[in-house]
Design a protein that fits this description.
Blueprint (H helix, E strand, L loop, with lengths): L2 E4 L13 E7 L7 H12 L3 E4 L8 E4 L5 E4 L13 E4 L4 E2 L1 H13 L9 E3 L4 E2 L2 H13 L12 H11 L12 H23 L4 H5 L4 H4 L2 H9 L7 E2 L8 E5 L24 H10 L3 E9 L2 E3 L10 H6 L15 E3 L1 E2 H11 L4 E5 L10 E6 L12 H12 L3 E5 L2 H8 L5 E5 L7 E3 L5 E4 L1
Length: 447
């Protein structure tokens, strides 16, 4: 049995060469500040590798530099703008979108990163989202009318659904290197999805279908294959092997409250976004010391449909977030008061945390701040096993939750959050220079 023992409070003594890993996980519905946190940790710890262990191209991890330059990280690790850019590794549970990766690399090059695509290694079993998976995703969401689930419209869930139903017929990163196999899989997928979409199309208005765009309906497999394979031609490395490193930051995506089996069904993702896949990678990498950090804002947010007990129209109107603009699929970002009931649930779903990162504390300064420490109608408890029926009932409970709000300050919020785990990083602004660390505590892994 593997045991873990705490390292000393200051594990970075000169001359000590222990392979370390920091796992980060969002504790909300996403948008907790994961990008800014990973940027800070990369610089503060001198990380030479950032690993994306879940999610896909729907991620929007915003990083702003003190000089005003900004980038929204989607598939590159959010530490890429550090002075010595670390490599990025996309683990096997990540769903990739090669054309979007190419566009992201172009913007990173404009910001001064040399040959960005050469920094990426992709696991050959990464699923690939395609134009037809995005089409099906969008038609399915449009067909729901007012009962939308809150999809981003990137086809990430459809990629996983197609794989679960069709197995090896799904498109994987390794297929991008074999034009004949890629064409065959894409043509098969095109015909299947157009057929599957027919009953959904009948439920959509012509105006709604117009949002999808005209080109995709007539796209052929050859053109799609060219679009998907272009970024990997002599640029991206496709390999199972995790790049050599000394300090790795494992970057989570979305948030625990959207997890496929722990989120509030049906307003969830199709991916496991708890730290499960991160722990699998840590074992594979042979990391000797690990710390698990949960990330939250000092208040709550939700971008997309679904229950949100502490939602505050007043707070939403006051707290503008340029990194999370309105979009046709999720609408506008909603803000609410910090919800300790939800956070306790997230921590329970993750297991014990080694530390907390609290972002956006500056946005509560000088305001009439509140915090929810309980609901009038009970607590939220994770199921002992993956149970979608349980999650549906929890969703109904959350929908009717009556949050008990009390006045709070930044100091009282930090004290209350400290009951979950030590607060080790605090953020009072968007850039790495506005963050402070009180020191991370690592677990020493022994087989």
């Amino acid at each position: 049995m593997r045991s873990r023992k705490r390292l000393a409070a200051s594990p970075f003594e000169p001359g000590v060469h222990v392979k370390r890993a920091v796992i980060t996980v969002g504790l909300g519905f996403g948008d907790e500040g994961k990008g800014a946190t990973v940027d800070f940790l990369t610089r503060d710890l001198g990380a030479d590798l950032v690993i994306r262990y879940c999610g896909g191209s729907q991620a929007g991890h915003n990083v702003e530099l003190p000089d005003g330059r900004r980038h929204t990280f989607s598939q590159f690790g959010a530490g890429t703008l550090a002075p010595n850019p670390p490599r990025t590794y996309l683990g096997s549970a990540v769903v990739i979108d090669p054309p979007a990766m190419l566009r992201e690399a172009s913007h990173l090059a404009e910001l001064g990163i040399a040959n960005p695509l050469q920094l990426i290694t992709v696991h050959p079993r990464c699923l690939v989202t395609t134009p037809w998976l995005r089409l099906l995703n969008r038609v399915r969401e449009l067909s729901r009318g007012e009962a939308r689930h809150g999809s981003c419209g990137h086809g990430i869930g459809e990629a996983r659904s197609y794989w679960l139903q069709r197995g090896e017929d799904a498109v994987f990163a390794a297929d991008l290197l074999d034009s004949r196999r890629l064409h065959h899989k894409l043509e098969l997928q095109r015909q299947r999805i157009l057929l599957e979409a027919q009953p959904l199309i009948e439920l959509c208005s012509a105006e709604a279908l117009h949002k999808i765009g005209a080109d995709v309906w007539e796209l052929n497999a050859d053109d799609a294959a060219d679009q998907l394979s272009e970024p990997v031609k002599g640029q991206i490395t496709v390999s199972e092997e995790v790049p050599s490193h000394q300090m790795a930051i494992l970057e989570g995506a979305q948030g625990v409250l959207l997890d496929e089996y722990r989120g509030f069904h049906p307003h969830t993702t199709w991916s496991t976004v708890t730290p499960r896949h991160a722990w699998e990678l840590v074992s594979q990498m042979g990391s000797e010391a690990v710390t698990l950090l949960g990330i939250t804002r000092a208040y709550s947010t939700r971008h997309g449909a679904g229950p949100f007990p502490t939602f505050s129209p007043e707070l939403t109107a006051r707290l503008a977030d340029p990194g999370n603009p309105w979009n046709a699929w999720q609408g506008s970002l909603r803000c609410g008061w910090l919800d300790m009931v939800m956070l306790r649930y997230s921590v329970a779903a993750c297991g014990s945390l080694d530390g907390l990162v609290v972002n956006h504390l500056d946005q509560l300064e000088g305001t009439n701040t509140r915090m929810c420490d309980a609901y009038n109608n009970g607590v939220l408890a994770p199921s002992s096993v993956p149970n979608l029926g349980w999650q549906t009932r929890l969703s109904e409970q959350v929908q009717t939750a009556e949050p008990v709000l009390e006045l709070a300050t930044s100091e009282s919020i930090l004290r209350t959050l400290g009951s979950l785990a030590p607060v080790v990083v605090t953020g009072y602004g968007p850039t790495h220079s506005a963050r402070r660390s009180s020191g991370l505590s690592f677990r020493m892994k022994r087989d």
